[in-house]
Amino acid sequence: MKRYSVFAVAREAARYHTGWERAWKSPEPKKKYDVIIIGAGGHGLATAYYLGKNFGIRNVAILEKGWLGGGNTGRNTTIIRSNYLQDPSAAIYEKSRSLYEDLSQDLNYNIMFSPRGVMMLAQTEHEVRGYLRTAHANALQGVETRFIKPDEVKKLVPIINIDGPRYPVLGALWQPRGGTARHDAVAWGYARACSDMGMDVIQKCEVTGVRQEGGRVVGVDTNRGAIDCDKLGIVVAGHSGVLAEMAGFRLPIESVALQALVSEPIKPCMDVVVMANTVHGYMSQSDKGEMVIGGGADGYNNYTQRGSFHHIEETVRALIETFPMISRLKMLRQWGGIVDMTGDRSPILSKTPLENCFINCGWGTGGFKAIPGSGWGFAELMAKGSSPLCDEFSMFRFREGKFIDESVAAGVAH
Amino acid sequence: MLILECPYCGLHADETELAPGGEAHLKRFGPGSSDDDFEGYLFMRENPKGVHFERWRHANGCGKWFHAARDTNTLEVFGTYSAQTTEPPQDIKDKISARRPGWTWREFA
Ligand SMILES: Cc1cc2nc3c(=O)[nH]c(=O)nc-3n(C[C@H](O)[C@H](O)[C@H](O)COP(=O)(O)OP(=O)(O)OC[C@H]3O[C@@H](n4cnc5c(N)ncnc54)[C@H](O)[C@@H]3O)c2cc1C
Ligand SMILES: [Zn+2]
């Protein structure tokens, strides 16, 4: 693989850009791999990457039924933060955030990580107390966050209306190192690095069955034939229930639609990410100038990648109160993704009842921020059978009552 | 927009009038049951891509709970029926069979 650099740009400019090579290959599936990962979203690709990089396991295929990053990874609003409440969450989300910091250099692919700061508004007394608690928890966990007062909020976000009337801004939980990144680039960067290590990233390859012998997985059936493997990683977000059924177990997960929308591009007006959990909306400004807006998830099961209009209406209605200047903006695009929700709003990175079959799912409305950390931990889990980043996130925690309750930190969908 | 007919008051209610209540026909297990049964009842869900049975409440209407049979993959509604039953009634099953031959959902088909 030729490295991307300023010299490469200059060299190619001098020869009419004829020398760029394909970023990844499009191989035919082999008969057998050491490891098969189902799902080429961020989490599946990152898992494969760290299997290769950290554990030297490179006979790996990543099977994707659609296109690279075409699931939630390419549909999310890219908020990256690690200001969760529980210790296991802080560990994996902070690992992830810190990996994002030099991911562009690591992958030699510009993922446009922008640590512009993430602010979670406190608009009720209840939220003030909640975020003060989170700020203290984060201090103990070594995650840099701070509770800031309304005047500091206003200084950081001049377009905000802090006086209410219905939901005045009483303060905010501020994570200066949080931010955003380019979602497609994260998938593409990992895919390119995986392909470069000799792994097969196979698109338009849908897994239709999981084959097992004597309680252990031996391979998968796909629309491009049967493929054998020693170990299987299921990393399919919204379709986790469907794959689990193929593998013969059930999950504590339900799949619902989550939507987002963007406005027409405008001049730079807000250089941080603002989340308003009470009113269920959040907003940031993309590099193109669009206001990127998201809100709450639907309340019922859905696989159509379309959500209900009234959620969009509620989100926008709430944000207009907080940011009056957006009331005249035209909205350009709206879309949905199918997110995999667990009862405690924490993910599952786990062994399964089927031996050598592992599952990474349940990231729900907030897993983009976790892609590097999840891949790092899940690769270790798949390679060694245990990982300090993952062990608390076992799918069996529910029966033991060992929830990792993040329903407050996850508050609004993001 | 999802529209369901409330089997009690007969209104065609759009989803802003309704509150979703999750998977229907859960078998309840309490103290004294096995860990497997208790876990299954409390946490494990069918989450099918296709035919699904759900509980809904006509929250901003008559206030009553009822059941709905839907397809989560197409958003087609097969029908709604009373909450006072442990199994979908035959006419709902027939309607589903007419549209989705060979469907299954837990032990019902
Ligand atoms: C509107 C929206 C906004 C969001 N905003 C944020 C945010 O601001 N910050 C944040 O951290 N997170 C956010 N999220 C959540 C985040 O997008 C997801 O948690 C994350 O992208 C999940 O990544 P993944 O790799 O697990 O899943 P995906 O990216 O969904 O990848 C799974 C892949 O598996 C494939 N697949 C499924 N079934 C099969 C099969 N049978 N065979 C082969 N392949 C299969 C799918 O095609 C898909 O490409 C948002 C999500 C949505 C929908
Ligand atoms: Zn009614």
UniProtKB/TrEMBL annotation, chain A:
GO terms for molecular function: nucleotide binding; sarcosine oxidase activity. Residues 35-79 form the Rhodanese domain. Transmembrane segments: none annotated. GO terms for cellular component: cytoplasm. Its EC number is 1.5.3.24. InterPro entries: FAD-dep_OxRdtase (IPR006076), FAD/NAD-bd_sf (IPR036188), Rhodanese-like_dom (IPR001763), SoxB (IPR006278). Its cofactor is FAD; FMN. Keywords: Cytoplasm, FAD, Flavoprotein, FMN, Nucleotide-binding, Oxidoreductase. Gene3D superfamilies: D-Amino Acid Oxidase, subunit A, domain 2, FAD/NAD(P)-binding domain. One of its GO terms (biological process) is tetrahydrofolate metabolic process. Pfam families: DAO (PF01266). It catalyses: sarcosine + (6S)-5,6,7,8-tetrahydrofolate + O2 = (6R)-5,10-methylene-5,6,7,8-tetrahydrofolate + glycine + H2O2; sarcosine + O2 + H2O = formaldehyde + glycine + H2O2. It comes from the Bacteria. It is found in: Cytoplasm. The keyword Repeat does not apply. Belongs to the SoxB family. This is Sarcosine oxidase subunit beta. It comes from Lutimaribacter saemankumensis.
Automatic annotation (TrEMBL), chain B:
GO terms for molecular function: sarcosine oxidase activity. It comes from the Bacteria. Pfam families: SoxD. One of its GO terms (biological process) is tetrahydrofolate metabolic process. InterPro entries: SoxD (IPR006279), SoxD_sf (IPR038561). This is Sarcosine oxidase subunit delta. It comes from Lutimaribacter saemankumensis.
